[in-house]
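Render this sequence as a predicted structure.
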Amino acid sequence: MTIDTDQLANQLEKYNAAYRSGQPLVDDATYDRMVEQLRVLDPRHPFLHAIEPEQFGGRKEVRHPYPMLSLEKAYSDAQLERFLNRVFKEARGIGVSQIMFNATPKLDGLAARDDGKVLASRGNGLVGYDITNAFDKGVIPVGGRGQGLGEIVVVKSYFEAHLSDKFEHPRNMVVGIVSSDILNRDAVQALEEGMVQFLPYGQLPSWQGDGNALLHNIDSIIQKFAGLDYPMDGLVASVMDQKLKQHMGATAHHYRWQVAVKRKGETAVTQVQSIQWQVGRTGNLTPVMEVVPVALSGATIRRVTAHHAGMVVKLGIGPGAHIEIIRSGEVIPKLEHVLESSADIPIPQHCPACGLPLSWKGDFLRCTHMICPAQTEQRISHWFRTLGNADWFGIKTIQKITTAGYDTLEKIYTLKEPDFVAMGFGPVQSKNLAQALQTSRTKPVEDWRFLAALGIPDLGVGDSRKLLQHIALEDLPKVDAARLEQISGFGAITSRSVVQGLAEVSGTLLHMLALGFNLERTAPVGAVEQVNSPIAGKNVVFTGKMQRGSREDMQVEALRLGAHVQSAVSGTTDYLICGEKVGATKRGKAAQMGVRTLSEEEYYQLIQAQSSS
């Protein structure tokens, strides 16, 4: 079958426009594969030699002082070698003998240029758009303003911990922040915590060496950058000699002295046998593809998770579909590409756990029935996981307990050792379970962790802590949405959702409080502001294995002393406190951002200095 290259290019233009708007229709690997297909079929096609444009409607246009071009890409050692040979040939032509290369991580964010006054998007490479108000919204300029080219990115660890179930890719969120005047709660929270940053390329770690070293050590160089806590997509290698760079110049698409090296993880092709639907704590159904077993990165893969029901419909995933999966260092393989869709797309109409009708919310298929046993099991599991002060309550144990009729926390906390024995647990396990319940009530736990453990939608650990700085636990059942909206970060929609959630769990909340949990209370906002300590008002990050106590205990103490505890190093961090086994990459990142690094002992000396003076 003959492929129409113009149709292929038109499809690529549509995919690119969707990607630039933050709503990608295909994954990066699929798009790159199609570009390479077009390059093979028609290397002179205009699409391959033009900048992939992006637009931000209603923004002032800004002409770049020099073009912000795209990048030539090398997906294999052979392609990288061809690039190097071209560089060597050009260098010989002008008498340059010593050729060195600089390699940096290739960020996967929104490219822009900051001259200190205006932050301009790439646009069409010649003219971009004024997006300076991104800084007003809370985007952090790492290392300060005016450092030239860089990208707006979300801190990777933060995204994975808090946002990966809400956005398909960090770039989607970045585009939304830049292009929207009204931000959703998740974006506001990420901005307030300093997790959305403009990272200049000059702040990135780098490698330098000759072409031979670059070619033969490319994978280890990429691995060297793996610890960088930002979304990455390979590395960028650039000629360092200015004379050679000027001589090589640029095409309309890319600078000829620069190349992006992209590495895919190990992939495998398999066939979908069936789709199982897992019901989560909040009622969202996750499709899990059961596939023909296939070896991948030293493991036999039998199950692959799709993101949501919308993806199943859009990509035609069902029994008989042929898919490509990838494992790039992750434990869990990812769906890379649907090679052949299925005619049978099994979207359930009823919940697989409770049998009641399902509904759609965006791309997610949801069970909204509180009596759903799967949600009950996940809510109880969430309680013990989040509370974090008692073991033994794994999901299998919880399923056995709820099947016996103990399907609420109120019922579970009445259980004694003989009750567990009656359910069929062994004598040792029964004793451990009964003791664990007692421990969970008597062992100290923060009130914000207690609140977050109730599993109220839109109220995670961070927001629970913020909420309890303004309203005591006992007063929450009486709170209204208007009161919540007065708290920074709680918009109208979130406030209504939280109030509704509080109403649904108010009985459980008051019952559990009556059981006498040993709660460490959050200090009110005013009290925190009056704390007089060397770290009051400072942003701190704890990492590594601590000797004097757990990292969590240190975080709680830091909060008591008025500090703001962050989950990852950013441009707003004041102190990085390191225990044992902290990698050089993390320390190096802190040094690049001007963050002061303290050992565990130095930290204790710092916070004790005030009390001894």
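Summary. The chain has five domains: 1-49, 60-261, 266-366, 389-520, 532-612. The chain has a mean pLDDT of 85.
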